[in-house]
Amino acid sequence: MNTQATLRQKAIRAAKNSLWNEAVETNSALIEIDEKDTGAYNRLGVAYLQLKKSKLAKDQFKRVLEIDVNNKIAKKQLERIKNKQSVSPAFVSQHFIEEPGKTKTVELTRLAGKAVLDSLVVGKNCELVIKNRYISVMADDKYVGALPEDLSFRLTKLIKSGNTYSCAIRSCCGKAFEVYIKELMRSKKNMLTHSFPPSKIALSSINDDDLIDEEFTLEENIPVEIVETDKDSEKNIDDISTEEVVNTMK
């Protein structure tokens, strides 16, 4: 395998693992080999965006358009930067694939402070920690935010009865943070129970071609119902059956 192909694989691997400084270095090396490598410029632009270096990112996408005036990826990313929209990094298509009943994109509440939020990148794996009234989202043992109360209530019951889930940062833009939650294992007790009822899911995806290979997957946030507030009398989760939780979400 030649040096250029090897570097390209390394650049893709760095992005998949959210190693953005390495992605910058590797894509820059590709550009030194071929100054007209639009794929490397696009990947470099995404890496700079994740490092919160918007001006450098814009420079890369503009360079792409100097080489290929019709490059739709660069055009779309420049438009997103102009409109201050969050930009997901290029993951393999299956990274955030939507599976009705098994996955959900959720906007966090009770967000942590700016210092913690600024240190996060899209794709960062998180941990779901059950609290008294909600589920906390933790990254590197630091509190990030919480799931909405109704979803916390539902997942608490499912987790306590054997289900397991993964959680990753899906988008982080200003004061809005979204996580992608995926059901990894469904216990025998919950075999007929969807983690996220399909009837409540409305998907709206935008797919871009060729950005770590080169593909973006975006989805509109799915609103959830508010069933309690901090001022409400608290329910004892252990006194409520999984079946009751399921019924409240129908």
Question: How is this structure best described in words?
Answer:
The protein has 2 domains: 3-82, Tetratricopeptide repeat domain (Serine Threonine Protein Phosphatase 5, Tetratricopeptide repeat); 103-248, Alpha-Beta Plaits, CATH 3.30.70. The chain is 36% helix and 20% strand. The protein contains 8 helices and 8 strands. A hairpin with a 2-residue loop joins β5 and β6 (176-185). The protein starts with a helix and ends with a helix.
What separation lies between the terminal Cα atoms? Answer: 54 Å
> Overall 3D geometry?
elongated
Largest sheet, in brief, is:
6 strands, antiparallel
Unreliable spans: 90-94, 200-250
How many E-type strands? Answer: 8
The CATH architecture of the largest domain would be 2-Layer Sandwich
Which class of the largest domain in CATH terms?
A: Alpha Beta
Global structural class: alpha+beta
Helicity, as a percent range? 25-40%
Q: Give me the Rg, rounded.
A: 20 Å
Number of helices: 8
β content, as a range?
Answer: 15-25%
| Domain unit count | 2
* SSE succession: HHHHHEHEEEHEEEEH
> What value does the average pLDDT take?
76
**Widest sheet: strand ordering:** 1-6-5-2-3-4
Instruction: Indicate the CATH topology of the largest domain.
Output: Alpha-Beta Plaits
